[in-house]
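FORM 7B: Structural annotation worksheet

SECTION A. Query
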Amino acid sequence: MLGNVIVGQSGGPTSVINSSLAGVFKTAKDRGAKKVYGMRHGIKGLLDRQYVDLSEKIKTTMDIELLKRTPSSYLGSCRYKLPEIKDDRETYDKIFEILDELEIKFFFYIGGNDSMDTIKKLSDYAILIGSDIRFMGVPKTIDNDLAVTDHTPGYGSAAKFIASTMKEIIRDGLVYDYPTITIVEIMGRNAGWLTAAAALAKGDDCEGVDLIYLPEKTFDIDHFMDRVKELTAKGRSIVVAISEGIRVLDGRYVFELSDHVEFVDAFGHKQLAGSAKFLSNKIGAELGIKTRAIELSTLQRCAAHMTSRTDITEAYNVGGAAVKAAFEGESGKVVVLQRVSDDPYMCITATHDVHQIANIEKKVPLEWITDDDYVTDDLIHYIKPLIQAELSPIMVDGLPHHLNVDM
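SECTION B. Predicted structure
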């Protein structure tokens, strides 16, 4: 008997993270795993002995299809930073004690940068104590800031939602015969991949957004105000896309320039929100132009009705690839996507040492950001294949139907 499997989800959810969970579960069962356990609320829940037997929850092919279409983290999530091994071996001993009780031989963690830090530490501790448990990271993050991999599952669907929403916002903003300004704040922390997706709105049927500001470049407020005055002087409405993580020259986030309540998580990440509101208020006060601030917020990561079929398929595939690699003897690795062709688009899976991925932020190359507050065609061509095709929700009573672990 191969031994049992356990899988968890961590960090911010996406609309396709459960497709990766489905890939882990089905591939593990198909390859002979007796039990597949799910951690409730990630590694933090495991420390509290919170877990479920997924075989009792996911019983049919329809359950698998529903799980793939269910947004957010089916098992629940956490933002829990494991201590350094040298500082607290007791925590690690407790984790391995629980894993041994459950006869776990394969551990999978679906997440982004911080989750890969967990895989790194657990696989290092396994080597230290001579444990044969294999640890594998399964990538996800809408921020697309994970190193080595061409892109991350979750990003394509969020980009599709952003581009679609921007087209609708642009149409709405053009209904008046006087200039208005709409500033849309987009997630991504310190990387501008998501905000760059706003550029995809431009096409034969849409004028596109007017200005795009990514955190990879210092944000100059005076320059921004000059651009706004220049564009609105032409008598038309404009739409601006900004990253939540834009910073001014002294290193402060733009939202920190106003009064705000600061929340910092276990990994030291500040909650970023309020930059669009700050800029909107400044325009209103100084230029007297009607301005609206929109924060897409969690809609970017939970809009499962707007998933990309490419994204959901790749999310499922990386889950399956992680199981295959672990069952064949690999540990301390992360599944990555390698783009082998743009036309036609094709990506394959591979594995890579977690030590070269965890805690490393991949940002938009500066050569893909223009000097006139926009992005290049190269960046648009990079994103466009990731948003292609759709996977329709399974509708019940006119609404999408989801799988709920507690029901």
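SECTION C. Observations
Residues 155-173 form the longest helix (19 residues). The two ends are 31 Å apart (CA to CA).

SECTION D. Sign-off
Analyst initials: ____
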